[in-house]
Structures are given as structure tokens and as C-alpha cells.
Amino acid sequence: MNKILLTPLLFYCSFFMLASCATTRYDTKSVVVKGPETNYISVREVSVGDWLTYVVTTSFTGDKKVSLGGHYDRVLSKLPALGPERWDNYTFNAFLRKSQDNISVDFYNECKAHGIKLTVAKTAWDTIRKFELMDLPVAGITYEQAMRYVRYKQDISNACGFSPKDTFRYECFLPTPEQFDSAQTILDSVNRLGCSMFNYKGSLCADCPGGKEMIANPVSSRTGMEPTSVWGYFPDKRGLKNFNGNVAEMTSVKGIAVGGSCVHYAAEAFPGKRQTYTGSAGWLGLRIWFRRVTITP
Q: Which one, of 65, 95, 83, lies nearest residue 140 by Cα?
């Protein structure tokens, strides 16, 4: 696996310390693998934690502690379409909700040395932490929002670890549908035991190893209906997580997504298949692609 940058990390205070010191550190860094030609591909989809870091650190440049609910108009254009049903929506809504039982959660953009304390109700944070909801893929965003995130990611990627002597920079982009197809490797939808290999419609299997535990978990029990963790399932031969299923991934062509999703059948996740969309959708997300661009002296 080729590493451009380090993976986002999640830290919490000691068990013996107060809950008010709860800390989430999202460094906005990426682990990538080599893709076709000169491209690199992020191992995982963009997560809720990634997106919240983007929203906070680009909206509150001088602030040290903020409440999203108190600045809703400022962050509205960067938020996904939110409703009451899905777990990713629960997480965003938790940070927007005003509460008397707030704790502070630290979001840190290491590349910019920029940290902000974001308030959230303690009970909501306990749920987010317990079920690792920050690791759900972001969904419900528009193509325009995705493209703004891509530009932000490019800026962040080039702010980390470069020296004046470097002869290249990274360009972030969304792939064409054909580029995505060329990166897909052969993957069956089920293994020898008949167990699902990725998150697609009807994929939850109670008889498979860990199936009963998945069904008992309020998040993974939504497999085949909602997106689950960006770290879920086994990687494909390139090392990519959820390159099939979970959320369909936007391409450079507005209105065309690829890779299938939790609400599509397995057959719709393979090369040559396309998912169309208008606006935003709860099954639609993105993954960042990279390429090196030589700097002209």
C-alpha cells in the first residue's frame, strides 16, 4: 500500500477523566493505494468525521469553541441534506441541536494547525462514540458540494509535509466513470459460505459469521438499507474498502455515480454499471482520487 499521508485518527480522554474533555482528532490526512496509470485512490470513502472537520475548520477560522446550531446559516451550504431516519443524519443533527448537557469535542486540522472545540449533547456523543458513527460515509451531498470538498482536500493535501525543493504537488479529483471501471478488480458478491462481501441491497445475512451480532447492532443491522462504516468489509485486491456498495461514488460527470450502493443490487456494483442522480441522495457519496502534478520551474 502506498501512503501519501497518515490516516485520520480518533482519540478519546482517559476513562478516569471527565467526559467534558472528549477529544476527536481528524487530521484530514489520507491513506491511498496505487490506481491505474499515475493515479492514487483513497482507501476509503469520505466519512462523516471528515466532512464535519471540513465544515468546522473552513467556517470558523478564528473561533476556538463554537456551536453549529448557533451558526446554522454559516454552515448550511456545506451540510448534507438531512432527515430524521439515517444514522449519519443523526450525527450531523446531534451537532446542530442545542442542549443544556453539552460537552466539547475537539476537531483538529493538523495540516493547517487549526483546532476548534465543537459542542454536542453528551448523550448524543456517547451514542456517536459507542457506535463509531463518525466512520459512516458522508451521504446526501450534491455534486457542487462534492467539488468544493475536492478543492478543499487538494489544498489540505498540499499543505502537509511539502518542502520548497519538492518538484510536484497533488491534484485531487473525481474519476471519470471509465477511470473508476478500470480500477475495479474482480470481486464476487458472496464468498464460499454464501456470505456477502460488501454492502448491497439484501446483503445482511444472519447465518454468516458475525451475522447475529450485526443484526443486534443498531447500525450494522441497517446493512443493505443504509451505509455502514467506511472501514467495513474486506478490501479488494488493490486494498480499497467499499469500492463496491455502501455508497455509490460520484464521478466527474455530474449526475453519474458508480460502484453501486446499499440500496442497489450486487449486480449494479460492477464495471460498466451506472447510477444516476439529481441533487442529493442518501445512498450517494464520494471518494477522493489523487495524481501527482509536476511543478514547472
A: 83
CB 58 within 8 A of CB 152: yes
> Which amino acid does the sequence have at 120?
V
SS3 169: strand
The Cα 270–Cα 261 span in angstroms is 11
- One-letter identity of residue 112: K
Tens of pLDDT, residues 182-195: 999 887 898 887 88
Give the Cα-Cα-Cα angle 225, 229, 235 (nearest 5 degrees): 105
Find out whether 222 and 263 touch, Cβ atoms under 8 Å: no
State the DSSP code for 165: T
The position carrying cell 459512516 is 136
DSSP secondary structure of 219-268: TGGGTTTS---TT-S---TTS-SSSSSSSEEE-SSTTEEES--TTS-GGG
pLDDT tens by residue, 62-75 = 767 888 988 999 99
- Joined together, the cell numbers standing for residue 263 give 440500496
* DSSP classification of residue 201: T
